[in-house]
Amino acid sequence: MIKSNNSIKKITITYLISLIPLILFGLYKNGISLYIKGYIGMLEMFKPLLLLLLGSIIGISVNIIYEKYIKKSKNNLIDIIFSSFHPIYGILISCISSINTNIILFTIITFIILFISKFINLKINLISLTSLIIFFIMNIANKFSFLNIYESSNNFKMDAIDYLFGKGSGGIFTTSILLLIISFIILYNSKVYKKNIPILSTITFTILVIIYCIINKDIGNIMNMLFTNGILFSFIYIATDPISSSYTKIGTNIYSIVVGVLTFIFYLINPALSSLGGILIASIFNSLIDLKFE
Amino acid sequence: MKESNITNLLTTDYIYLPYNNMNLLIKDGEYVYKNDLIMYNETNKIYSTVSGKVLGLTNIQNKKYIVIENDYKDKIKKRTNKKNINNYTKEELYNLIKEYNILDNFDIKSKVLVINGIDKFNQDITYNTLIKEYTTIILDCIDALIEIMGIKKCFFAVSNNDSECINILVNNMGTYPKIDLKLYNNDNIIGNKKILINKLTNYKNKNYNIQYLNIIDVINLYNLLKKHIPNTTTYITLAGNLLNYKKVLHINLGTNLYDILKEYNINDLDNMIINGLLSGKKITNPNFIIDNNIKSVYIEKIEEYKEIECINCGLCTNICPVNINPKYMYFNDDKKSKKYKEECINCGMCSYICPSKINLTERGNKFDKK
Fold this sequence. Notes:
The complex is a heterodimer of chains A (about 290) and B (about 375).
Chain A: H1 8-36, H2 47-70, H3 77-81, H4 86-96, H5 103-117, H6 126-141, H7 149-152, H8 160-164, H9 177-188, H10 196-215, H11 222-227, H12 231-238, H13 249-269, H14 274-284, H15 286-292
Chain B: E1 6-9, E2 14-18, E3 23-24, E4 31-32, E5 37-40, E6 45-47, E7 52-60, E8 63-70, H1 90-100, E9 112-117, H2 126-133, H3 135-149, E10 153-159, H4 163-173, E11 179-184, H5 193-201, E12 210-214, H6 215-227, E13 233-239, E14 247-252, H7 257-263, E15 272-274, E16 281-283, E17 296-299, H8 315-319, H9 326-331, H10 335-343, H11 349-353, H12 360-369
Parallel strand pairs in B: 1-14, 9-10, 9-12, 10-11, 13-17
Antiparallel strand pairs in B: 2-8, 3-5, 4-7, 5-6, 7-8, 13-14, 15-16, 15-17
Helix pairs in contact in B: 2-4, 3-6
């Protein structure tokens, strides 16, 4: 019978379009601007772009290797590339990565996790899992930080406008709150995008942060807690991964609240990895949430 | 594409009436008049839809049919009725409906009347075309039913996609103040009986009976009250992307689809779809007999898609008009999925919307066959 034009290809393209403003800003903030200020050399200026390209190439190559050489699929190349969300996973992993990420480590870990996931049908959030493994290994090697060389060598006191325009710390392409809002508006029009997840997760997390700051008499820290460490980016792009999030009407609401609560709890332990940890743990229970709260 | 009005196709060579081991009132070779009772059982009565000679039993797609050769004279036994359609009592109406077996479910105690003017399959144009063609007949009949049955509330649901149809109705509604016209967008399977009744009446919370009629039922009731004749014809939409037209056919019940295709020189027999493009059934044999359950025939080239693994997007659950979980229903076979299957109206929206191109409706049917 007739079918709608919804497809993985269409969803992936929507995600890519929504990411364009964030990517351009990330390239500027973590590449061009640092080069202009003399903090990095010419080659290093292209590191954000390289990570982004690597992420997408890994995602695409995992699909090609699996479909063409393991499943022996006879579909055309475009269908093979868009046979799963792995290309967008690769891109999102690069977006949330720190500018200090080791390129070789990033390539190896991302490829291994995405490739293995083709054989093990785990409904957990692969973006969070991969990013967390990269961060942990990086942390073992030396102290992990989201700050680029300019941010780590200066002290800033930031206000709301600074956060809106992306001066806060976070993953390479995640820091501008204003551009994140624009990206969310683009995604909001996609049928497949689970729009209630970022809204409810953000509301839950914000309420908990405000209560926490009021109790600790640290109201000035609210914006820093909300707008740094790629938390909003994670709620908008990573928590909404269709495969690893709940899909029923009540299930998605419960899942979103769980993501918000877990992110807050992890924030108290390690702010930089809080949203990824929260999403990963919530994704483990997504099937159970769907079953119980249908 | 210009949409034409109703095309009468009542002169096919043969008529095939479903036998179903009923009590026969005719013999092979006997001459029958149009509207003669041919066979019956406790629940059903079959009338001849043409006049002509009975040729006997035949087998089409494992079903037995009585074949009548059409003599094209449409001879009928005289019936006299001088009554105005408003001048019936409740009991007379009930007895007529029973006698001619016009409706399956008729509740004489109903106080709410729901008239469905929205096609069940949203690409069909049958009901809109009928409303435009027979506006006065339809409104007169509804008004008469309100009077006869003592109806307290009457809803007439119409699709808002056809402005011409709405204009005609609005211009005529002033004379029928008891009819409450409701306009709906037909994108969400609102033409389905269950969905429409739920939408209009919230019947679960009210303690009254609802009488549901579609536009073809209303026309049949009009003919019954006016002429005392049984229902021997139906209306179907003939359309599809392989035809350069979309039309409503008025045909005899028991017409062979093959005769319709022959009439319109349609030779593409690999792309025939019965009853809508969302949940319809693809047929390959044109020897297919049209009955009351057939609403449309599409000659449509449909793109073949390869199913991929479910991406858990939840679109099927969000779009489901009866608020069930199609993914759970089709991928499981337990008590919960059986409950969902009972509630499912088989609209095909879940299969349509699925980005993984999974034919959820077909999967459900496979489970049912097990």
